[in-house]
Design goal:
single chain; alpha+beta; 4 domains; five-stranded antiparallel beta sheet; 28 helices; about 60% helix; about 10% strand
């Protein structure tokens, strides 16, 4: 090597980032060690060929690193073959006449593949000409042709001061392929190769979406399976995990990890044994933990590599994407149709009656010595008697020997066994119907939720309402007293502006008292707020919330929800009550309007009737949302509504703070200073917007 070559190599390494050079060197070392299906080792020669075609000054150094990796395998044949291929690549690609004529790079890739084919064909046929040797030589030649093109792109990270996005992605792909060079080690039943492949798949899915996750999963799974003793099932496992994690990655890191864990958990149960399932789950959890602690700066750098501008793998967030909402809306609507079509056949009762009679015949009458008399000589009487018995069983739920028709009772010698068998079949049918009802209700809830999601995405970017500016404003105040010995009331309330003309106020009462009820009610209002702010309409948000609570809490729990939507532009209030106590509107003139609702609590039924009521609102009105604890504080709870109406009509206080304080004190005093149930009062004072405020808002 001439002194000029040495100086170029020295200059090359001196101006490169030390971390990048080290990463490239480790990649070359592992690629030199990588052997596919025990007979193919194209990665080291392909790396050298890619560097040689691009005339990188460091090609010889990296070739030596690749050969050092091959030497650590302990296979002399592997090392010798790679040395010979690299020598012939040098002779074919780098002689003076090729350099002068400047052949296209694809010619260099083809010459490298030809060198690999020649070496492998000659070496493989030294002991005798065989077809297998030519097949192996051709396979390695094709692999080197494509891999050298990939590694030539990766070399742009070393040869260019401003590498392209393709160069960055090619280097990442080379890093994934280098996993195959790791030793086939297991630590605590966890395969190191699979763990790294799983981590890379999750990172790729999170940062590039389902497409990138699937590609990373397939690539990592294939290189892991083909370079070790692992089953090809790892390819399915990583591909599905990457795809689902990519869908979650549209929404954030935690969602990507959740999708990765969910898909991995589902796929792990297709493993042949419990030990494999345990290993898969441990690999999933470790990979997820590594991604969760990945610093944001490193994640941003990786994203810049995987998702450069103007590239096919560019990923946008779901909120800003133009093309996502419409297709996703169609998907959710189709899934809603799918779930809604699944229902129980209407002839299930008839089928059960037939099955019950056939079961009795098979288990009781089959061994009876009188079966010929019952089922041949008097078939009509026997069948009619059994049908009547089954009909009675369907009505009462249980039959006794006295319920059997006399014509059958006189000649049946196994009457007791027959009655026991019928009752047993009825119990089985009851369990089956309960299970079927459970699954049908779940399907109906899922169908409704998918329909709401489709509706939300269909209007993913709602235009703001263009209407006249409201002349009213709402001022909200609240107070609460925990019931019993509780330190925290189980009721929660929320108030927020949906837009410039609409204000939402809600009061939720979780089942029971204390922290658990408080958390349940807070979560309920948080979900409802997110739904309304996302653009879903009032009715759909309430229905979506109800079905979600039904799926989450049935049948143990439910939540009472009392909410009002103030449309300040149209000057109306829309009430929706799910198991909530009556609300009150105290007019400016002292009159009190009672607003009631008959719907059951949220989460108690799979769907709730949409029966909302609306009332006009005007300057000076005070709207009161109260929990049922205030009603229980009345000495005669049945007359609590009349008492509250009378008390509010006589109340001198006008500000919302004073009204809340007065009602709470009254409720506490009625129960001797210690209420049995939580008492919460939310007061909404409707006031007219002053002219000065309107002018200030317009100027702003």
């Amino acid at each position: 090597m001439s002194s000029g070559m040495f100086s170029r190599v020295r200059d090359f390494f001196s101006r490169k980032n030390a971390g990048l050079t080290l990463a490239f060197s480790i990649t070359c070392f592992l690629l030199g060690r990588t052997v596919v299906v025990r007979v193919l080792y194209p990665f080291g020669p392909a790396m050298y060929a890619g560097l040689k075609v691009t005339r990188s000054p460091g090609s010889l150094v990296f070739a030596v690193i690749c050969l050092l990796g091959a030497a650590t395998t302990g296979e002399t044949g592997t090392l010798l073959n790679q040395v010979l291929v690299m020598v012939f690549v040098t002779l074919l690609v780098d002689p003076p006449f090729v350099r002068r004529r400047r052949f296209p790079q694809v010619v260099g890739y083809a010459l490298s593949a030809a060198a690999a084919f020649g070496v492998r064909a000659v070496v493989g046929n030294l002991g005798g000409i065989t077809a297998d040797a030519f097949i192996i030589a051709a396979t390695e030649a094709v692999s080197i042709f494509f891999l050298s093109a990939l590694f030539a792109q990766a070399s742009g990270m070393l040869t260019s001061d401003e590498p392209s996005g393709f160069s960055k992605q090619a280097l990442v792909a080379a890093g994934v392929l280098s996993i195959g060079g790791l030793p086939d080690l297991s630590l605590f039943s966890v395969n190191v190769k699979v763990l790294l492949a799983s981590t890379m798949t999750l990172v790729g899915a999170w940062l590039t979406g389902p497409g990138g996750g699937a590609i990373a999963g397939v690539t990592g799974g294939l290189i892991t399976a083909l370079t070790s003793t692992r089953s090809l099932r790892v390819v399915d496992y990583l591909a599905v995990s990457g795809t689902v994690a990519g869908i979650g990655g549209w929404f954030g890191r935690a969602e990507a990890v959740a999708g990765h864990l969910a898909a991995g958990l589902a796929m792990s149960f297709f493993q042949p044994g419990p030990e494999d399932i345990r290993s898969r789950l441990i690999e999933q959890m470790i990979a997820s933990a590594l991604v969760m602690v990945l610093p944001s700066k490193i994640a941003a750098s990786i994203k810049g590599i995987l998702s450069p501008k103007n590239h096919i793998l560019r990923r946008e967030t779901l909120r800003d994407a133009v093309g996502y909402p419409a297709p996703l809306s169609r998907v959710f609507k189709q899934m809603a149709d799918l779930f809604s079509q699944v229902s129980v056949s209407g002839d299930s009762a008839i089928n059960w009656a037939q099955e019950a009679i056939l079961t009795v015949v098979d288990r009781v009458c089959h061994e009876c010595p009188n079966r010929l008399v019952c089922w041949e000589e008097t078939f009509g009487d026997t069948f009619e008697a059994l049908c009547g018995l089954v009909r009675g069983l369907g009505i009462t739920g249980r039959v006794k020997e006295d319920d059997v028709a006399p014509v059958l009772k006189e000649k049946c010698s196994k009457l007791q066994e027959m009655v026991m068998e019928l009752n047993h079949e009825k119990e089985i049918q009851s369990v089956h119907l309960a299970e079927t009802r459970f699954y049908n209700e779940t399907r109906e809830c899922l169908a409704a939720q998918y329909a709401y999601l489709g509706k939300l995405l269909e209007n993913s970017k709602p235009t703001p309402k263009q209407g006249r500016k409201p002349h009213l404003k709402a001022k909200v105040r609240s107070g609460a007293v925990p019931g019993g010995d509780g330190e925290e009331p189980g009721d929660s309330w929320a108030a927020f502006d949906i837009d410039s003309t609409r204000t939402f106020v809600g009061l939720a009462d979780g089942m029971g008292k204390g922290r658990l009820a408080a958390r349940q009610s807070r979560d309920t209002l948080d979900i409802l707020r997110s739904l309304l702010e996302s653009g879903l309409d009032y009715e759909a948000s309430i229905s979506f919330l109800n079905s979600s609570l039904y799926l989450a809490f049935r049948p143990e729990s439910y939540v009472a929800i009392d909410c009002v939507l103030l449309d300040l532009a149209s000057e109306r209030a829309y009430f929706q009550k799910l198991g909530a106590a009556p609300s009150f509107i105290r007019r400016a003139d002292g009159n009190v309007v009672v607003v009631k609702g008959a719907a059951p609590p949220a989460g108690s039924l799979k769907s709730v009737p949409w029966v909302n009521s609306s009332e006009r609102i005007e300057d000076g009105d005070t709207i009161l949302l109260v929990s049922d604890g205030l009603f229980r504080s009345c000495p005669v709870p049945e007359r609590a509504e009349q008492w509250l109406v009378s008390y509010l009509a006589r109340l001198k206080a006008d500000s919302p703070e004073s009204v809340v304080r007065s009602l709470l004190q009254r409720g506490i005093r009625r129960q001797g200073g210690k209420p049995e149930d939580d008492i919460t009062v939310v007061a909404i004072k409707v006031e007219r917007v002053e002219l000065a405020e309107e002018l200030e808002e317009s100027a702003g």
